Structure formats: C-alpha cells, structure tokens
C-alpha cells in the first residue's frame, strides 16, 4: 500500500486528530454536526490553544449554540477555555469572502460592493456553485496558513493552532471539498484558479482531516459510509467517525436477544413491581414488557450499525445523548469526553 493510499487510516481518535490543523466536520442533517464541531474546537483549545471555528452554511448555528448574537463576517473570540485556551468563531459567506478577496489582492473593495448591490455575486454563485465553495473553503484555508504578524508572512508561528470547519452535510461534502474539479470548467487559469489551487493544497495536505458525525441509525450510518468512500476516493484524509447521541443500554448483553424476541415474562415483572410497593401492577407489567422488548431491539440494531460504521475503516469516538439540550456546560462535557478518548492537537 502506498503512503497516499495509507494516509487517513488511523487506529484511534488520538491519531486521527494529532498533528492536524484543519478539521472538517460533516454529517447528515440532524446528527448534531454543529454541536460536535463546537465541542471539537473546545477540546482542541485545551492547554492554551487558539482555535478558529468556522461555519459556512449561513445558519448562524454557532451563535445559537453559544447563546450569543449572530456572528458577522469577522473572527471574534467566543469562549475562554480553562488552561488558557481560546475559541474564536467566524460565520463565512460568499459575498463577504469575495469582497475581502478583491480588496486583499486587487484593492477593489468598492467594486465588490457594487457587484453585491447589483446582485452579480448571487447570480455568479448560483450558476457556478463551485465559485461559492472556493470562496467559503478559501476563507478557512487562509486561516490555516496565516502566520502571526500578517496574512502574507511566510514564516513564524501560526496565528491559529487549529481551524474547525462546520461543513455542509455528507450529501454535498465531496463536491464542496473538490473545488479544483468544480472550478475547472469555470476558470482553467488566472486568479480564481490560483486561489482554488491554494485551497486544494491545504485540503489535500496531511494536516487536514475530514471527520464524520453519525447516529446509530441506518440512514445516517449509510450516508457516513458513502461519504467516507467518496472523500477517500478524492484522495483526502478521513479522520474519525463521531457517533453522537449514544444512549446507554438498560439491559445486560445476555438478556438482549431474549427480550428482543419477546421472551419477557409479564408475571415476573408484575411480581417485581408488586414487591416495589405498586398495587395491581398487572397492566403496567404488560406495557413494560413491550417497552423492554422495543428497547432490546433498538440496542441490537445499534450494535449492528456500530459494527458497520467500524467496518468503514475510520476510528469511532462516541458522545452521549444530551438529555437537557446543548449549551456551554454541555459542550464542556462533550469536549472532556473527546479529550478522554484521546482528542488533542
């Protein structure tokens, strides 16, 4: 197996994250992708790190999660992490990225503003979605390359220790990341193509990982397996699969098969309920027997799905279901869970 073919095959989450500077987080809608990206940024900022969390879908999911006002197109600190770490956030959008690009490289900010007023940017990115993706990924990869002292510095420490991108869902992740191919028909040479080449240089480097968020359900798991295959076929490094919203089993393993098959004795349950002080527990025992069977079948399904995800070749990292919803305290708990499973810079 060549070094290129072997790259991205890591035995555990620690190896999947160690040394990476750009972490791209994707997953099917509803899997908690933004929450996982935020927890990952917090975990990477531990022990004094500076981490930038970037969202590119215009949903203001980061602001909602952290309970702060909507984020502008501006990098700003949103969290101080114990140990001296700091998390910054940016809500990237194609129009602002284009105006920044024109200003930085051509001194044409007013031209960009005029294009926006005329609707030219929306028109261009609608008929050529590859351009939008180049602008959005370009903002994150520029932050990865940036050194202390200015954007054009070629040496010295990096401004950020890591960048975490809350990326589009798995159904669009291959096209979103393969910006060179998407731009090929739009610009075979010139500044846009050069910009795309710089973006792909970072995305294809050994310092970038694409992480997938899944649930222990068949549809998200299938999309995850398909996404892993697609990203690997593009020659990009697959990092880890974050299995999110995991619920603990309530039955020991040796009882699951029998319970799933309906072999739960309602009379035995009724006796236990009566011993607990409940009067006339017969009806409740019948209902409880059905619930026990449904729980057992769900747990067995989850075990099968977990095995299928493991067979995809990426290490699994598991996070629990947040019963009270996601907030800063919950993110802290998820970040500590990640650290406990080896996630670090």
Automatic annotation (TrEMBL):
Pfam assignment, any one: ArsA_ATPase
Domain ArsA/GET3 Anion-transporting ATPase-like stretches: 23-201
Coiled-coil ranges from the UniProt annotation: none
Record InterPro entries: ArsA/GET3_ATPase-like, ATPase_ArsA/GET3, P-loop_NTPase
The protein's name in its UniProt record: AAA family ATPase
């Amino acid at each position: 197996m060549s070094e290129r073919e072997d790259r991205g095959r890591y035995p555990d989450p620690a190896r999947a994250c160690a040394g990476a500077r750009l972490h791209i987080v994707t997953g099917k809608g509803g899997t908690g992708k933004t929450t996982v990206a935020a927890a990952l940024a917090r975990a990477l900022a531990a022990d004094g790190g500076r981490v930038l969390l970037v969202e590119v879908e215009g949903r203001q999911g980061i602001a909602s999660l952290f309970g702060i006002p909507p984020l502008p197109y501006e990098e700003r600190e949103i969290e101080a992490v114990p140990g001296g770490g700091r998390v910054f956030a940016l809500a990237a959008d194609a129009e602002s990225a284009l105006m920044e690009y024109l200003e930085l490289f051509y001194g044409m900010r007013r031209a960009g503003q005029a294009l926006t007023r005329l609707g030219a940017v929306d028109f261009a990115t609608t008929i050529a979605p590859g351009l939008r993706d180049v602008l959005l990924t370009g903002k994150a990869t520029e932050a990865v390359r940036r050194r202390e002292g200015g954007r054009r510095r070629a040496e010295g420490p990096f401004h950020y220790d890591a960048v975490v991108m809350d990326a589009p869902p798995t159904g669009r992740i291959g096209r979103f990341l393969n910006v060179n191919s998407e731009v090929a028909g739009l610009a075979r040479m010139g500044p846009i193509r050069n910009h795309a080449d710089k973006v792909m240089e970072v995305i294809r480097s050994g310092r970038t990982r694409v992480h997938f968020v899944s649930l222990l359900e068949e549809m998200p798991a299938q999309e995850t397996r398909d996404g892993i295959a697609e990203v690997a076929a593009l020659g990009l490094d697959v990092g880890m699969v974050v299995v999110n919203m995991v619920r603990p089993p309530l039955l020991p393993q040796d009882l699951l098969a029998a319970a799933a098959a309906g072999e739960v004795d309602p009379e035995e349950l009724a006796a236990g309920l009566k011993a607990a002080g409940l009067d006339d527990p017969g009806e409740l025992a019948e209902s409880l027997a059905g619930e026990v069977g449904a729980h057992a079948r769900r747990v067995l399904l989850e075990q099968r799905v977990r095995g299928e995800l493991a067979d995809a070749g990426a290490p699994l990292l598991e996070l629990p279901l947040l019963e009270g919803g996601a907030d800063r305290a919950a993110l802290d708990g998820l970040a500590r869970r990640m650290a406990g499973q080896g996630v670090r810079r």
